[in-house]
Amino acid sequence: MAELLKTQTCPYCNDAVEDCHSIWDYEADEEVTCDSCGKVYVVKPQYKLEGWLIEKQCQQCGEWTDDGYKMCDCGEFSEKY
Question: What is the CA radius of gyration of the chain?
Answer without folding.
Answer: 22
